[in-house]
Write a structure and sequence with these properties.
By secondary structure, this protein is mainly beta. The protein has a single domain, classed as 3 Solenoid (UDP N-Acetylglucosamine Acyltransferase, domain 1), CATH 2.160.10. Helix content is 4%, strand content 41%.
Length: 167
């Protein structure tokens, strides 16, 4: 990994550790984060400080990855996915800098569909699938599919050679 600093009209990358063979499209803001080898980051993505993105991840356009997030290897993030790191924000806590960082972990091989919202404090299990538009408020078990608002378990998945197979 190498430490990268780029400040251009189309891209801001500040003090990030970037792995080998990483593709970062234009109109991206990355701040003090870590990006693993062979990862792809689409246009109009913001990744905040302290975020760790594993190897072989795909992050589609218009997604927001906030402080306190860990994506393990081979995670797919669909278009417009939002991660939340404070489930009870107030202006008072923000100004006083007393807000509570609620970490999120997305385990290896998980898939998060477009426009999903992942609230703080949850773990999305290995090879789990979060359906498009879902709002995840609780932990998601490994190898299950969840959909809806709030997201609910609808089926178990089998994992064969790193690919999700819906049963």
């Amino acid at each position: 990994m190498k430490l990268v600093l780029i400040n251009e009209a189309k891209k801001t990358i500040r003090h990030c550790l970037i792995g080998k063979n990483v593709k970062i499209y234009d109109f991206v803001n990355l701040y003090e984060c870590e990006i693993g080898d062979n990862t792809q980051i689409g246009a109009f993505v913001e990744i905040q400080k302290g975020v760790r993105v594993g190897k072989g991840c795909r992050i589609q356009s218009h997604s927001f990855l906030c402080e306190g997030l860990v994506l393990e290897d081979d995670v797919f993030i669909g278009h417009g996915v939002m991660f939340i790191n404070d489930n009870n924000p107030t202006i008072e806590k923000t100004l006083a800098k007393t807000w509570n960082l609620e970490r999120v972990v997305v385990k290896k091989g998980a898939v998060i569909g477009s426009n999903a919202t992942i609230l703080g404090g949850v773990v999305i299990g290995e090879s789990a699938v979060v359906g498009a538009g879902s709002v995840v408020t609780k932990n998601v078990l490994a190898r299950v599919t969840v959909v809806g608002n709030p997201a609910k378990n609808i089926r178990k998945n089998k994992n064969i050679y790193g690919k999700n197979i819906i049963s």
